């Protein structure tokens, strides 16, 4: 496990550096490992620049992620080929991206559950998915299927808006019996997306996902849900609210999805509402940056050293230096929030916004899993007197998450090609010598 690392603040430190005594006690090969598990519809992204008439021609709703039938897929793909519009084909899927990014950041194992074609031809989409995924992502638990994985046509129009057209193939045929309960019970988190609930009659993905969620709930493993797209949530917000309240511990959403599920347009108020259902919430807000909210026990609260911020909740960031806890572990729970503006004010030129939110979530998962890893290996550390969910404070996690989003924005793919630098070039030498 590579720890989240020191960035603008000096609180990050690897296990080995924490204490010279523990350093002697722990030899590298006796370290216990932590890992996270994600479930996804296995898809390859096929990205193309199109104009709005293309979307109209194929009956696609702009800005939405929608499932298309075989006939539409054939015609759409043919037109993209004929006009030479395909820019790039790469492994995708909202959770696939998140597992990949987590493994790149943590330089450690994640496990991806889903389906994979049994017979893989060189150059096929299945082949491409596997070869574009970090070797740290364990694909050994994928369930074989006799047919293709999914394709996600990522159509970018003149305004930069992305419209996703999903040709599902057999991506939704993950069976409940393919869910290994011990694997989930031993993980640091189970990560799912709302897309897993968008299935047809013959599909088994939803049942498989629900089985995994119940297993995680029973084992006390945090369930992390990312909302994927506002259109899915808008169809039945009450169902989602109930599902989240009953089964989810950490909710990740952007401000549009936040509005769809909570009814609050302001991302801070949406995050505040979500904390009625979950222990921790991430609400990204594009150029506004991100809000992170969680619970802390009165006795563990830490005051910020930053300026108090204006917003719909007075002094909302006053306890942002605290580590997040499960509400149930707090005797006197307090809601705490933090906000981070985009790293360095955002890139001068955004190459692609695809996956910026997934990148932020991967960073949060890295912090969560680092805490489990540290606890497994240094259980008596004073750090674990507080029964916290996270390794770092809310403030640091959100800065880290924004930093990762920035990296996604300046590259073409939603998947990181490398980890973050050990030292940020933009920070002067004095920062590292403090
Ligand atoms: N236009 C932008 N300018 C600067 N930063 C951005 C911009 N869009 C996104 N970001 C960064 O990426 C993060 C996630 O973006 P967002 O678009 O909210 O996610 P999603 O992909 O889930 O919709 C933001 O919190 C911010 O740090
Ligand atoms: N598993 C699914 N993944 C999907 C679906 N529609 C889109 N996507 C993936 O989302 C990312 C982009 O993420 P975003 O946070 O920037 O919106 C992209 O790589 C797609 O593959 C879906 O229905 N199921």
TrEMBL record:
Pathway where it operates: Purine metabolism; IMP biosynthesis via salvage pathway; IMP from inosine: step 1/1; Purine metabolism; GMP biosynthesis via salvage pathway
Binding annotation for GMP: 93-97, 198
Molecular function GO terms recorded: ATP binding; guanosine kinase activity; inosine kinase activity
Keyword set includes Transferase: yes
Entry keyword annotation includes Transmembrane: no
PANTHER family: CARBOHYDRATE KINASE PFKB DOMAIN-CONTAINING PROTEIN, SUGAR KINASE
Protein name: Guanosine-inosine kinase
Species in which this protein is naturally found: Pseudoalteromonas denitrificans DSM 6059
Taxonomic lineage: Bacteria, Pseudomonadati, Pseudomonadota, Gammaproteobacteria, Alteromonadales
């Amino acid at each position: 496990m590579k720890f989240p690392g020191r960035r603008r603040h000096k609180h990050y430190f690897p296990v080995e550096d924490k204490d010279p005594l523990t350093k002697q006690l722990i030899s590298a090969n006796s370290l216990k490992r932590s890992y996270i598990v994600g479930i996804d519809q296995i898809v390859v992204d096929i990205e193309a620049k199109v104009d709005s008439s293309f979307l109209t021609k194929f009956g696609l709703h702009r800005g939405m992620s929608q499932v298309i039938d075989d006939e539409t897929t054939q015609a759409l793909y043919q037109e993209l080929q004929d006009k030479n519009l395909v820019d790039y084909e790469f492994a995708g899927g909202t959770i696939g991206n998140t597992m990949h990014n987590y493994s790149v950041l943590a330089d450690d194992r994640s496990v991806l559950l889903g389906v994979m074609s049994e017979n893989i031809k060189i150059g096929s989409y299945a082949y491409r998915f596997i070869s574009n995924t970090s070797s740290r992502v364990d694909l050994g638990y994928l369930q074989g299927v006799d047919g293709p994985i999914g394709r996600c046509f990522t159509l970018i129009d003149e305004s930069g808006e992305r419209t996703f057209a999903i040709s599902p193939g057999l991506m939704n045929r993950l069976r409940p019996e393919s869910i290994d309960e011990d694997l989930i019970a031993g993980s640091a988190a189970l990560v799912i997306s709302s897309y897993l609930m968008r299935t047809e009659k013959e599909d088994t993905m939803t049942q498989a996902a629900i089985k995994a969620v119940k297993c995680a709930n029973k084992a006390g493993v945090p369930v992390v849900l990312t909302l994927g797209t506002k259109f899915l949530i808008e169809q039945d917000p009450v169902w989602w609210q109930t599902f989240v309240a009953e089964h989810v511990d950490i909710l990740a959403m952007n401000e549009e999805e936040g509005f769809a599920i909570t009814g609050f347009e302001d991302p801070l108020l949406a995050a505040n509402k979500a904390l009625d259902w979950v222990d921790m919430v991430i609400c990204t807000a594009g150029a506004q940056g991100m809000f992170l909210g969680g619970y802390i026990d009165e006795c563990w609260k830490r005051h910020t050293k930053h300026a108090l911020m204006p917003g719909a909740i007075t002094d909302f960031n006053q306890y942002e230096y605290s580590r997040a806890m499960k509400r149930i572990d707090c005797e006197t729970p307090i809601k705490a929030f933090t906000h981070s503006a985009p790293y360095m004010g955002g890139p001068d030129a955004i190459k692609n916004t695809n996956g910026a939110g997934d990148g932020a979530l991967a960073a949060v998962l890295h912090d969560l899993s680092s805490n489990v890893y540290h606890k497994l290996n240094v259980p008596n550390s004073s750090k674990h007197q507080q029964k916290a969910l996270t390794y770092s404070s809310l403030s640091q996690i959100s800065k880290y998450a924004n930093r990762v989003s920035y990296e996604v924005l300046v590259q073409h793919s939603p998947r990181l090609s490398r980890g973050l630098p050990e030292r940020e070039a933009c920070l002067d030498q004095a920062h590292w010598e403090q």
